[in-house]
TrEMBL record:
Its EC number is 5.1.99.1. The keyword rRNA-binding does not apply. Keywords: Isomerase, Metal-binding. The gene is mce. This is Methylmalonyl-CoA epimerase. CDD domains: MMCE (cd07249). Belongs to the methylmalonyl-CoA epimerase family. GO terms for molecular function: methylmalonyl-CoA epimerase activity. Residues 4-135 form the VOC domain. InterPro entries: Glyas_Bleomycin-R_OHBP_Dase, MeMalonyl-CoA_epimerase, MMCE/EMCE_epimerase, VOC_core. The keyword rRNA-binding does not apply. Pfam families: Glyoxalase_4.
Length: 138
């Protein structure tokens, strides 16, 4: 199954400062900015585009339950995850299972932009948080 880079997720402490850096230094365009209070997300998200490459800036909105807050506390700010687009997430999940790669079932969801996503278990990916996603409505 073909996979292409969809975006990189970056954990940030200060959304306004991070957006300013991406806009002023990297020439990014802000595609969207919103908050997600969904359980297991609890983050402010800004999607920025630099010449066709997207980055999701992720800032925790709840320092107790947000996975981004936990990530920053454990590892500091920086690259949180790498997302790969697949043609069909259901087929990709079958392939992963056949390869012995576990996923974090509780992370399966559809985001505001219609992207279906799930995170692979970092224990099976050399510690890197990897997201698989597809866009079934496009």
């Amino acid at each position: 199954m073909e996979k292409t880079l969809d975006h990189i997720g970056v954990a940030v402490r200060n959304m306004d400062e991070s957006i300013a850096f991406y806009k002023d230094i990297l020439g990014a365009t802000v595609i969207d900015q919103y908050k997600s209070d969904a359980k297991g997300v609890e983050s402010e998200i800004a999607i920025v585009d630099v010449n066709g490459t997207r980055t999701e800036l992720l800032a925790p909105t709840n320092n107790t339950t947000s996975p981004i807050a936990r990530f920053i506390k454990q590892k500091g700010k920086g690259v949180h995850h790498i997302a790969y687009r697949v043609d069909n997430l259901d087929d990709a999940l079958i392939d992963l299972k056949q390869s012995g790669i576990r996923v974090l079932e509780e992370t399966l969801r559809i985001n505001k932009h219609g992207r279906r996503l799930i995170y692979l278990n970092p224990a099976d990916t050399e510690g890197t948080i990897i997201e698989y996603c597809d866009y079934p409505t496009k």
